[in-house]
Amino acid sequence: MLTATTTPADEPGLPVVAQRFVSSPRGARLARHLAVRRMEEWGYPAASDVSCSVALVVAELAANAVRHGRVPGRDFGLRLALDLAAGLVRIEVADAASAKRPRTASPSSYPEGESGRGLLLVDVLAARWGSEPRRPVGKTVWAEVRLEASTHM
After folding, report:
1. What separation in angstroms does the CA of 119 have from each of 63, 66, 109?
2. CA angle, corner 103, sides to 129 and 134, nearest 5?
3. DSSP assignment, residue 143?
4. Would the pLDDT of 104 be above 60?
């Protein structure tokens, strides 16, 4: 179901959590719950703007990893890093599908469709986002959410 590992920060002083989830809708839901719980531990209540933004971005990136980045037998990973000096939470979702990378241009909405708006949501909520190849296989899609909503808008 779920493999948990809390890792020490890559940089001293940065709180980081990293966890692997089964590539399923349940795994994506658990990733979102972990993000909300960790934001609370870092001092951002579940109802705060920043926690809600992080939860929505994690939900979208995890859902995309499950829907578009799933490789049978492979999990997806979530990494959250709180950078108080930069005023950001960095969200990284890694999956095993190298070929399916999000478009680098700003996403557009599809008013007639039932889906296709997720990266538009990420684009609005994140200060910046992108993707990068992961070695030996896969990709990491990342987003940075500002800790203060007033500087974000």
Report:
1. 11, 14, 9
2. 65
3. E
4. no
Tell me the backbone φ, ψ of residue 23, rounded to 5 degrees: -75, 80
What is the spatial distance between Cα 108 and Cα 149, in angstroms, rounded to a whole number?
A: 23
**Please, how many CA atoms are within 13 Å of residue 96, restricted to the half-sphere of its CB?**
11
Query: Hey, which residues does 77 pair with through a beta bridge?
Result: 20, 94
Burial 86-121 (b: 16+ CB within 10 A, else e): ebbbbbbbbbbbeebebeeeebeeeeeeeeebbbeb
The first and second tokens of residue 95, run together, are: 């999956």
For residue 97, give every residue at least 6 positions away whose Cβ sits within 8 Å of its Cβ, in sequence order, or none: 68, 69, 70, 71, 138, 139
Which element (helix H / strand E) includes 112?
none
Distance from C-alpha of 65 to C-alpha of 49, rounded to nearest angstrom = 24
Instruction: Take residue 47 and report the two structure tokens written for it.
Output: 């109802």
Question: Would you call 42 exposed, middle or buried from its count of C-beta atoms within 10 A (0-12, 13-18, 19+)?
Answer: middle
> Across residues 39-61, what is the average pLDDT?
97
Taking residues 112-129, what's their average pLDDT?
82
Residue 56 identity: L
